[in-house]
Amino acid sequence: MNEPVCFIDTESDGKLRVQQSALQILQQIQQPVVVVAVVGLYRTGKSYLMNCLAGKQKGFALGSTVESKTKGIWMWCLPHPTKSETTLVLLDTEGLGDIDKGDQRHDTNIFCLAVLLSSTLIYNSQGMINSKAVEELQKCFTFPFPTTPENMSCLEGLDSADIKFLKATDNLCKFVFHDNNIKRLKDGYTVTGKVLGHLAKMYVDTISSGAVPCVENAAIAMAKIENEAAVKEGLEVYQSEMEKLKNSFPLELKDLTSKHQHVKSMATQTFMKRSFRDTDGKNLKSLEEKISKLFDGYQCQNKQASKRRSEDLLSSLSAPMMEKLNQGFYARPGGYDLFCKDLEDVKKKFNSQANKEFMAEKVLEEFLKQKSVDSKAILQADMQLTEKEKKIKEEKERAALLKQEIIFKEEKQRQLEQKFEAERQSNEERMRQMKKMEEEMRLQRKEAEQAMDRKLREQAALLEHSFKEKTDRMRQEMDDFRRQSAAAELFRANQMAMMENRRIMEEMYAMRMQEMTLTPENKGRGTRKKKK
User: Which superkingdom is the protein from (predicted)?
Assistant: First the structure.
């Protein structure tokens, strides 16, 4: 994509909707996706961050006023800069907390969609992420939450596996380009662009209906949609290849069966690439049943083609004999032997030229049965033969017909054995595909378990690191408190000492004044004044 497009916006009635043009873009993306969504208060630079991730100066709209510029959710799909065969999907969301909008539910819905659709959720904040920011997040949604000590702020009260808050644009780009994981569902199923579009449609429809979106319910609905589509795609692959093969009909049954097995394997692989949560093999079985019905039809068409070619060949080879028969050439003494000789020549030529036609014996058997009527009539009209010779000829003819019938039955038995062998191979292939599917599901579950284990270890390490930080911080606070307490005690002691010194000085001054009042000189002066 050269530029972002609107992914999810609001209809006139206030309900969210997914833009069809955006879905069409996602439908074309069969690669795994890394989905990065940004949320936060309006006018905090979210679009700028997304442009940085896209490596572009322009792209997502940037506003120059306090008015929120981005409306709804906008999408930009780009090749992932460090992961081959992977698409980076950037989602820029409408700013939260716009008082002019005055719709807390709308903010909650946008935030909820960002969480559900993303493999990494970025909460953009101006300044530190404080308790107020966490409270605002909790109002919108509750979800698990891990952190890393190097470049992330630990949010108290939130546990998580997928959402991280970074302090710098460089850290954000480094994380997305090198450390970020591909979007997966709960059981480890890899999300492609096509699947992401389906998820967005289901989540938006659920929210618009007033219900609460659920990842598990979305996965169940996704499984139904994807498995039905997988069966359809598998059938299309099978039909496409078999229709090309029709131009080569008729084929020997073993060749047709071999081609059927090869094309069926292609169809099964196509199904397995798209199927999702077909744990009981129900949809794979449905595909096989549909393919089996189609193969019966192709077998019938191949059979009819072989029959037509055999009939055309036999008609061409028997044309001279039929012309003699119509002209009455064999209605004379010795005519029966001439007819039998011509008929045998036709059989030899047909068997040599139609040896690869699996319907040849059946067509020849029907032809000989038809000609047996003419043969009997010629035999009865041949006056050269005695009655005994006629009976011997009839016995030979019956024996020849019986022999041909035996040959046809043997050919039919051979075809049945080939069909049985084809079914056996088909069952073996089915078991192989089922084992392969089970192994892939096991690996997916193992990968999901390993990812969860890594996240749990990371969370434990982060909790330990956070606990250590808290312990160190508390120890520092206690040391600071002790120092402050000691300083306060010293200050109080100094104050008390100063007060005590002042009191002593005041007392000494009072005593000094009193002494001065009671000296002899002062006493004499006082007496003389009284005598006067």
Answer: Eukaryota
The predicted model gives 495-501 an average pLDDT of 74
User: Could you tell me where in the chain the CATH 3.40.50.300 domains are found?
Assistant: 5-146+160-209
pLDDT band at 355 (very low <50, low <70, confident <90, very high): confident
Widest pairwise Cα distance in the chain: 211
* Angle, helices 193-208/20-27, rounded to nearest 10 degrees: 150
Distance CA 135, CA 156 (A): 10
pLDDT score, position 88? 94
In whole angstroms, give the CA distance from residue 303 to residue 347: 21
Which residue stretches of 246-281 are H helix?
Answer: 253-274
Residue 236: the pLDDT is 95
Average pLDDT of the segment spanning 347-369:
87
Residues 294/242, Cβ–Cβ less than 8 Å: yes
pTM of the full structure:
0.59
Any idea which fold 5-146+160-209 has?
Rossmann fold (3.40.50)
Residue type, 70: T
Using alpha carbons, select from 30, 119, 25, 41 the residue that is nearest to residue 74: 25
Residue 73, strand partner residues: 8, 93
Question: Distance between CA atoms of 122 and 125, rounded to whole angstroms?
Answer: 9
The β-bridge partners of 76 are 90
Residue-wise pLDDT tens digits, 473-489 = 777 777 776 777 777 77
CA distance 263 to 384: 62
Whether the Cβ atoms of residue 6 and residue 22 lie closer than 8 Å to each other? yes
Residues 233 and 303: their CA atoms lie apart, in Å, by: 27
Instruction: Please report, as a single letter, which amino acid is at residue 171.
Output: N
Write phi, then psi, for 12 (nearest 5 degrees): -65, -25
Residue 366 has pLDDT above 60, yes or no: yes
